[in-house]
TrEMBL record:
L-histidine binds at E84, G85, T86, R115, Q129, E133, R261, Y265, Y266. It is found in: Cytoplasm. The keyword Protein biosynthesis applies. One of its GO terms (cellular component) is cytoplasm. Keywords: Aminoacyl-tRNA synthetase, ATP-binding, Cytoplasm, Ligase, Nucleotide-binding, Protein biosynthesis. Its main location: cytoplasm. InterPro entries: aa-tRNA-synth_II, aa-tRNA-synth_II/BPL/LPL, Anticodon-bd, Anticodon-bd_dom_sf, His-tRNA-ligase, HisRS-like_core, HisRS/HisZ, HisRS_anticodon. It comes from Muricoccus roseus. It catalyses: tRNA(His) + L-histidine + ATP = L-histidyl-tRNA(His) + AMP + diphosphate + H(+). Belongs to the class-II aminoacyl-tRNA synthetase family. Residues 10-332 form the Aminoacyl-transfer RNA synthetases class-II family profile domain. Its EC number is 6.1.1.21. This is Histidine--tRNA ligase. GO terms for biological process: histidyl-tRNA aminoacylation.
């Protein structure tokens, strides 16, 4: 058969069958576990005023300069398909007047995101994320709890084996200023060995050099100073509080002083869950504290912390896709039995039983279709059964068959 002319746009993919069941299972599990921690689900628009992302992600960030799907709509407004979920949640907090009441707000979200980047395994231009945000909490316990929720989700999915939580602190404002000065002094001494991109970062945001993937930069980063020596007493106490709470929650971790968030509104905790089961794309969940982001949106100072995770990557880690529900096939034999079959199939569905009724075909063909569907049972109704108010209930696994009153079918099949 010739390949159809129309294909999914590059970097997108269809979710069908087993792949959809994996995808749905990840989101459904995350939704269920986050609710146990008191998170409520929000849904923000898929596109926003471009300033929501340009202002919060940084005008010089790779996402803003290279990856955002930004266009001018018919009204002349610049809008952007959301590249991530945190900014939209913070914008929603501000524009819905929620910054002064019932804080903290604990928010869960799930949905598609969009970035124009080179597609690769587990990474698409339209991809999906889940995320949890605690907005309006300044205490280290909030950091630990949001991390514990993410760990619990991974445990519930059965993908926690081989996953490692790496954490770091970015300190408070004075800590970062002192650390920034130390990094500038260190990297300036070897500026000629830095990549062109990192030389630009040295002027604007030296912390982002620690994130560089360039081999030459990595060699310099290996000996770069860490923030620990530059932490204020308050920042050091905050970090210790996060680690104590993680210990109480039973979340294992290791410290990694190279985990950074380069934007000014990030502070204190930065973390990633990493795995060696996805090749180069080792991060499955990442986040941190962003005490200045709501203020960037025009709201009051609102300390916050959260994480996001890629659904596609989490789906790839599942040992097996959840099984599709096995239906019950309801099969009428003859025109007179069809009305009773339709009554029966709806009765089963209302009782929560997945049920199918074939549209056409004799008994043999309908049974063949039931087998193709993987049905667990067949309910056969013919003229004789109709006259007696019963059905033949055939167990397609055991091969047994019995007569069951129509009124008792649902109870037998639940």
């Amino acid at each position: 058969m010739a390949k159809p002319d129309l294909q999914p746009a590059r970097g997108t993919h269809d979710l069908i069958g087993e792949e959809f069941r994996r995808h749905h299972h990840v989101i459904d599990t995350a939704r269920r576990i986050s609710a146990l921690y008191g998170f409520e689900e929000w849904a923000t628009p898929i596109f926003e005023d471009t300033r929501v992302f340009a202002r919060t992600l940084g005008e010089t960030s790779d996402v803003v300069t290279k990856e955002m799907y930004t266009f001018e709509d018919r009204g002349g407004e610049s809008v952007t398909l959301r590249p991530e979920g945190t900014a939209g949640a913070c914008r929603a907090l501000v524009t819905n007047g929620l910054t002064q009441t019932n804080l903290p707000r604990k928010v869960f979200y799930a949905g598609p995101m969009f970035r124009y980047e080179r597609p690769q395994k587990g990474r698409y231009r339209q991809f999906h994320q889940i995320g949890c945000e605690v907005m309006g909490a300044a205490e280290p316990l909030a950091d630990a709890e949001v991390i514990a929720c993410g760990w619990h989700i991974q445990q519930a999915l059965g993908i926690d084996q081989g996953a490692v939580l790496e954490i770091n602190t970015l300190g408070d404002g004075p800590s970062r200023e002192a650390y920034r000065a130390a990094l500038v002094a260190y990297f300036q001494a070897s500026a000629d060995r830095l990549s062109e991109e990192s030389r630009t970062r040295l002027e604007k945001n030296p912390l982002r050099i620690l994130d560089s993937k360039d081999a030459g930069d990595k060699a310099l980063v290996a000996d770069a100073p860490t923030i620990e020596a530059h932490l204020t007493e308050a920042a050091s106490a905050f970090y210790a509080g996060v680690k104590r709470a993680l210990d109480r929650f039973g979340v294992p971790y290791r410290e990694n002083p190279r985990i950074v968030r380069g934007l000014d509104y990030y502070s204190h905790t930065a973390f990633e869950f990493v795995t060696d089961r996805l090749g180069a794309q080792g991060t499955v969940m990442a986040g941190g504290r962003y005490d200045g982001l709501v203020e960037e949106m025009g709201g009051p100072p609102t300390p916050s912390v959260g994480w996001a995770a890629g659904v596609e990557r989490l789906s790839m880690l599942l040992e097996a896709a959840p099984a599709a529900p096995r239906p019950v096939a309801v099969i009428p034999v003859g025109e007179a039995a069809e009305a009773a079959a339709l009554d029966a199939v709806q009765s089963l569905r209302r009782a929560g039983v997945v049920a199918e009724v074939g549209y056409k075909g004799n008994l043999k063909r309908r049974m063949e279709r039931a087998n193709r569907l993987g049905a667990r049972a067949a309910v056969i109704i013919g003229d004789e059964e109709l006259a007696e108010g019963v059905a033949q209930l055939r167990d397609l696994d055991a091969g047994t068959q019995e007569r069951v009153p129509l009124a008792e079918l649902a109870a037998r099949l639940i």
